[in-house]
Amino acid sequence: MNMMSESAVEKALDQKMSDASHKMIGKDVSVYYGEKRALFDVNLNVRENTVTALIGPSGCGKSTFLRCLNRMNDTIENCRVTGKITLDTDDIYDNNIDVVELRARVGMVFQKPNPFPKTIYENISYGPRIHGLSKNKADMDQIVEASLQRAGLWGEVKDRLHESGTGLSGGQQQRLCIARAIAVSPEVILMDEPCSALDPIATAKVEELIHELRANYTIVIVTHSMQQAARVSQRTAMFHLGQLVEENDTDKMFTNPDDQRTQDYIMGRFG
Amino acid sequence: MNTSLILLILAIIGIAGYVAGARYAMALVGGISSKLHSRPGYYGSFVAVWAILPAVVILFVWLVASPMFISSSVRGAFPEEVKTQSQAEQGLSYGMITSIARGMNALTGDEIARIENNPVELRAALGAKGVPLAGDPQPFMVKAAAELNRMTFVSRILMTILVLGASIGGALFAYRQIAPRFRARNRVEKVILGSLVVASSIAILTTVGIVASMLTEAAHFFTAIPAWEFFFGTVWDPRFAAAGSGGSEGQFGLIPLLLGTLYIGFVAMLFAVPIGLFSAIYMSEYASPKVRSVAKPLLEVLAGIPTIVYGFFALTTVGPFLRDISSQLNGLVTGDYANFIQAQSVLTAGFVMGIMLIPYVSSLSDDIITAVPRALRDGSLGLGATRSETIKKVVLPAALPGIVGALLMTASRAVGETMIVVLAAGVAARLQINPFEPMTTVTVKIVNQLTGDLEFTSPQTLVAFALGITLFAITLCLNIYALYIVRKYREQYE
After folding, report:
1. What is this model's ipTM?
2. Shortest Cα–Cα distance, A182 to chain B (Å)
3. Which of A70, B7, B76, B488 has its CA 20 to 30 A from that of B151?
4. What is the pTM of this model?
């Protein structure tokens, strides 16, 4: 159920070009940290097999919104989320939804590469193992290889799968984290400024990877770099002071935005 | 002038030097402090340091050296027949001379004149002034005492002049060096650095001194008893250390004590580690901040209880309870109500010591678990791992080296613990493996051998130092290993 067959993916991809189905729908999403309100009634839909970029100045709520999508905000004390977010047709804040299952469907890549202090192999096999995705060792080997292949890391690490993941370079570590997220076959991958700790060459590799992953996954990426948003995404959402200012096709957003604030931000007048 | 008055004057000179130095520096640049190399306070401090430091050093050296010099010159003037006596007797005579000298300061000039002609009256006269003498003074003693007083007086005056001179001279010397580009801050900071070095070397030197003293005493012990008999002997029976009784050779086998120490420590860790570790996991991973802010200090109160109090607890509550429950159990099973757990036993001591160690384990492990970066937890949770999977598979493995280090440190505390064992496990040095029977530890035996009337040359007392150095070596190794592991773990995240 979680895995789509190749042909289904192709079909979905074609369909997207017209008016794509919405993978996730956020309706009137508000977030409070204790007394402080961080998000104000955000209505944002995430299209399937599309890269959606969330941009905006620091503290605008884009990361907060991202973390709502797989309920990572649950791990923060005093954090309260109102409104409704659905994944396909399931309300993810419904009591019947198991947050563990949700996070298996909606994976996450963090700002700073955070490989576990284990071997590369164990870093990848961690997720499949806890979700029971492999029947035996050979099966697991295959999952590990496939995930690393997809993350474009296989060639670099295939001879040292049993060395520590923390020994890789920053860019490799981040791709390892992406491979780790892919290994549990999520439907959606959330990326929270995945390149902010990387140098330009590593960034280029990760961006290329995001581009390729789009065929199989729905991706939401938070970024501070306007160029990056323009390069990797098809849809862009602009946040400001906890509110969604504008959501549009990326091409339109960066050439002829509807909202003056978007125009100003993109031109570098604030933020 | 007495020493505290001199110190007070030094302090006054120092403060005056500080004020004068700071003002002078400001005056040199016409009140524009930015033209000075250092802040004006540093010029003041520079003068104050020169006024106080050399003078205090001279004072200290003088206070140590002058009594030694006076004593040797007074002893040098002893009559020939006294000089032929033993060192101990000469020491007694010198002690009497100092008493007389002290007493003579309390007497008036007339009284002294009378006594010099008639030393026999001296004892009564001094007794009336509240200075008791051990025996009847001999004539040479009165002369020596007068000489002693005179030398002390001269030494005092010389010292006062020299110290105050050094202080004023130092202050003037420093004051004259002050110039706008003079680097006062660098000089003052060098002095501060020096005092920091001195402070830390005192701690290190003390440790070295303790080890050295234990080593020398232990070496004396090993000349009387061969090392292999001590380290590999299986019987501990030191006999009494009666003065002069040469025939009572004891047996000094370390093995029963060492085994008792390790056994009781092991039982204690058996209780402390699971409870402490589980509570650390709860505190760091599950407890809400409210619960944590109450529960953690409460748990740490346990660490503040003096171990002797744990000892009572073992003696009056835990021991009898275990004994009674064992007799009930035995009665239920066999019909014979004999207790199989002694009130004083390895189990009692281990259990109570385990309770004492819980806060160490939990507090240290809690810190280490909390130090595991949040990013790792997020990474695991973000993959759909449950909280418990995250803790078991990511947090604990990452924290494991640190936790092992914490446990080793706790173990070294268990090995060094004394009071609980004395009260809860008894003092019988037995070589056995039943946890329900009493045993004893190295520390208890050290206390045992060093209390009461003793002669500090017999192996019966010197063995305490050999035990001490053995214990020290064990805990030192545990601590070094623990530090090594903890440090290795830190490197992973830096």
Report:
1. 0.82
2. 9
3. B7
4. 0.73
